[in-house]
Specification:
The chain is α/β, with parallel strands linked by helices. The chain contains 15 helices and 10 strands. The chain starts with a helix and ends in a 13-residue tail after the last helix. The relative contact order is 0.11.
Length: 409
């Protein structure tokens, strides 16, 4: 009996961040649901005075009335109504508890990430947002970043205004070069200078850049983003993909009321066991016999996850297994959970590399179906994106004012 207080101390260590207003509200809702549940159960039990009254009356109209009431209380329809109300109360309680658990997971994620950065960061209140869009980039991709800044990524005051008025946060996501010494190597200093000019980077201090480290980068990105912004959705997109911000946020806003949402172009490609080929999977044997396909998952060019899933990844990142391909890793982290997979083909419109008059995303725009994101499958992005991003933007872009009329926070 003395072990329980010790367990409570472990669960509530010193320095834990206090519950947010949302968490307190969720706890109140849970308590209210418990009250409903208990009141529903009590109503099923006859009171002691009623039982005595029934036993004491053997004849007469009063006895008949009481017997009739007792018979009604055992009516199958009445019992089923009580069961239905109790079931509804249990479901309400389950939803309230799930909401509370999500809020606590988010707070643990923020405390864990911020705690390693010092008290100054841990005391900072995360900024509310509709969506955080992390653009995966590399040290050698400055021309790609510039091509995005010249097309669909706002710069300067427009970027700040988009965050403040629409809750749309956009950052280029990059780690460190791994070069020892204060300030890192020349590549790190070049990014620092670019950040000073544009103020549009998210630096992952604990990540060393490398193509085979994309799964680790994804985990750290979600953890850092959750600790910095309190957003409804977190998006990862490559730096050679064209995005229409207004359409993307409008489509995501439709799922704000749903828990555990995973949005993207779902696919199921072959598991490549041959060494030396692109996208080779060293752990191919885990997916069954040779020639099998992966489970359904969103293609890696662009995808979005809701707040609770991002928090789950952040909290559990030390034990989330990394496969060779980043998009497969994300799918594996989520496949065992109660997750709604949304296959949104608007997030993978085609931009063929051939010099055709109209590309797929342009045809759809002319038909009134503006795409959320566009790229070419054969290039895993816009082919020759530095040269063609402006062409794609002119052909498939939604217009500069579209994002301002999109769903607000």
């Amino acid at each position: 009996m003395m072990a329980q207080p010790q367990l409570e101390k472990k669960l509530l260590p010193r320095g834990r961040a206090p519950l947010t207003g949302k968490a307190v509200a969720a706890l109140c809702v849970a308590s209210f649901a418990v009250g409903l549940l208990l009141s529903g159960r009590v109503s099923l039990l006859p009171s002691a005075s009623a039982s005595s009254k029934v036993k004491a009356t053997s004849d007469g109209s009063a006895g008949c009335d009481d017997n009739r009431k007792l018979g009604e209380s055992h009516d199958p329809k009445g019992i089923m109504n009580e069961v239905s109300r109790t079931h509804h109360a249990i479901r309400s309680l389950d939803k309230a508890v799930s909401s509370l658990e999500m809020e606590l997971a988010v707070e643990r994620a923020r405390s864990g990430v911020a705690g390693g950065a010092g008290a100054d960061v841990s005391s900072r209140v995360p900024q509310k947002a509709l969506v955080v869009i992390g653009i995966n980039t590399a040290f050698s991709s400055k021309k790609r970043r510039d091509s995005l800044r010249e097309t669909w990524v706002p710069t300067g005051e427009k970027l700040r205004r988009l965050e403040k008025e629409k809750g749309i946060v956009i950052r280029f996501v990059i780690g460190r070069s791994g070069t020892a010494g204060a300030g890192g190597g020349p590549a790190d200093r070049a990014i620092d200078a670019e950040e000073a000019d544009n103020k549009d980077f998210m630096r992952l201090e604990d990540h060393v850049e490398g193509y085979h480290e994309l799964s680790s980068k994804t985990r750290i990105y979600f953890a850092t983003a959750v600790a910095t912004w309190d957003a409804d959705f977190y998006v990862k997109v490559d730096d050679d993909v064209h995005v229409n911000l207004g359409m993307l946020t409008t489509r995501l806003a439709k799922y704000r009321a749903r828990p555990r949402v995973y949005v993207g172009c779902m696919k199921s490609g072959p598991v490549l066991s041959q060494r030396g080929v692109k996208y080779h999977e060293p752990e191919y044997w885990k997916f069954g016999d040779v020639g099998n396909k992966y489970f359904r998952h969103a293609t890696g060019q662009i995808y979005a996850v809701s707040k609770d899933l991002a928090a789950y990844i952040s909290v559990n990142q030390p034990i989330l297994h990394r496969y060779a391909n980043e998009d497969v890793s994300l799918g594996a982290w989520l496949i065992g959970l109660e997750v709604e997979h949304v296959d949104d083909r608007s997030m993978c419109c085609a931009t063929p590399p051939a010099a055709v008059r109209f590309v797929d995303c342009e045809w759809k725009k002319r038909a009134g179906n503006v795409c959320a994101a566009s790229f070419d499958w054969s290039c895993s992005g816009v082919c020759r994106s530095v040269d063609r991003m402006k062409l794609i933007h002119n052909a498939c872009g939604e217009g500069q004012e579209a994002v301002w009329s999109a769903a607000a926070t």
